[in-house]
Amino acid sequence: MNFYQKTMIASALSAGVLALGLSTQAVAAADTAAQTLAKQSGCLKCHAVDKKKDGPAYKEVAAKYKGKANAVEKLTHHITSGEKVKFEDGHEEDHKIVKSKDPAAIKNLVEWILSRQ
Ligand code: HEC
After folding, report:
1. Burial 63-100 (b: 16+ CB within 10 A, else e)
2. Residues enclosing ligand 1, CB less than 6 A?
3. pLDDT tens for each residue of the chain, 117 residues long
4. Which residue of 21, 89, 99, 110 has the fewest C-beta atoms within 10 A of its own C-beta?
């Protein structure tokens, strides 16, 4: 391998590492935003990622909707419409509405829930 080839490989590698670093950062920022919105909206009083509280664990929700084409749509409706939900003890109440009107922030939260596993 001559010097030119080595340099090309080295720079291709570092570009790859840099791109990986940036996308990891973007994912981390989106995760934080989703968790912050869930917390601000009071979702975590009834939900956790991996254990059942009053509501199902987000991992369970992700498993239930895995591979379903309309998952984002359904969950967006679920957290923005205040539709009735049934609790373990049988009583019903309006489900909590997410505290954001920003479609991108809501979509980010829904995608975060659906990617728990
Ligand atoms: C007072 C308790 C409570 C709060 C607060 C709450 N939830 Fe729920 N959530 C429930 C219950 C109970 C269910 C189960 C509904 C059912 O199975 O009919 C549920 C179901 C869900 C589901 C699954 C829906 C489905 O179709 O399977 C998602 C996603 C969800 N909640 C997200 C959220 C988000 C996001 C927030 C905050 C904006 C939130 N929840 C706040 C009680 C709550």
Report:
1. eebeeeeebbeebbebbbeeeeeeeeeeeeeebbebeb
2. 38, 41-43, 45-47, 54-56, 61, 64, 74-75, 78-79, 85-87, 95-96, 98, 109, 113
3. 888 788 778 777 777 777 888 889 999 999 999 999 999 999 999 999 999 999 999 999 999 999 999 999 999 999 999 999 999 999 999 999 999 999 999 999 999 999 998
4. 89
